[in-house]
Amino acid sequence: MTRTGSPTPTARAADLLDPARCRTVEAHRDGYLDTLGATEPPILTFAQRLMRTTIYSTGYQLLRPSVYRLLAGAIGSNGDAERARITGLLRLEPGDTMLDIGCGPGNFTGWFGSQTFPGGLAVGVDASHQMLHRAVADNSGPAVAYVRGDAENLPFADGIADAVSCLAALYLINKPFDAIEEIYRVLKPGGRIVILTSLAPKGIPVGPLEKVSGITMFGRDAITDGLRNAGFIEIALQTGGLAQTVSAVKPTR
Ligand SMILES: C[S@@+](CC[C@H](N)C(=O)[O-])C[C@H]1O[C@@H](n2cnc3c(N)ncnc32)[C@H](O)[C@@H]1O
């Protein structure tokens, strides 16, 4: 976080924070900013616990493409085509400031950084030390920074982001619609959001699946309605298998 010469990506991420919304602001020895300190979002499910283990965070990047291809068909894997699809929906451009909420090991964040460079910044946000350790090690770059924070209470000031992604994470967040409201708050007017999350299969009760997996299965209208209620416009939905991608825009006024 040196302040001489051009600021590091981490120093630029620190400038986006609202200190009143941070429990602490510490430069973690692994290379990310920690705004949670000893506190963390409660772990209520097995899936949430898994996200905070070294073994899962280490294997995640290998497993994710095949798991998503299996569950979601064409959409969802983190191959080049999927990265291009999400980047297109986010309308990312060099110079943009973007947040990747629930970034895990940064498997999309590093790419987003390459799309916002030069002049922009991609900030991966996650609650898990284990995931952020991998993110810094595997997916850093000249326009990439990582922040440990809670999606339900984002540590950023209002209106700092041109775009926000929340990929394969909303179904793990205890209060997903609080997270959507927070994303709305931190977006600039005209800012874009893309959510990739679960889609409950039609006509099949999802309760038992949710109970076993610890993953919320969202209905077809749940996310579009949530975005509309938060104030978003230009809401568009794509579905594939057990996944849905929803994009929207914060009104300019
Ligand atoms: C399955 S990973 C997704 C990683 C990546 N975005 C992708 O598309 O592959 C979901 C991440 O969401 C994070 N997460 C869950 N609840 C969170 C919360 N309340 N605040 C911040 N991160 C959270 C988990 O720690 C986990 O790393």
UniProtKB/TrEMBL annotation:
Keywords tagged on the record: Methyltransferase, Transferase
PANTHER family on file: 2-METHOXY-6-POLYPRENYL-1,4-BENZOQUINOL METHYLASE, MITOCHONDRIAL, METHYLTRANSFERASE
Example of a GO MF term: S-adenosylmethionine-dependent methyltransferase activity
GO terms of biological process kind: methylation
Gene3D superfamilies for the chain: Vaccinia Virus protein VP39
CDD domains given in the database record: AdoMet_MTases
InterPro entries: Methyltransf_11, SAM-dependent_MTases_sf
Official protein name in the record: Methyltransferase domain-containing protein
One Pfam short name: Methyltransf_11
Domain Methyltransferase type as annotated: residue spans: 99-195
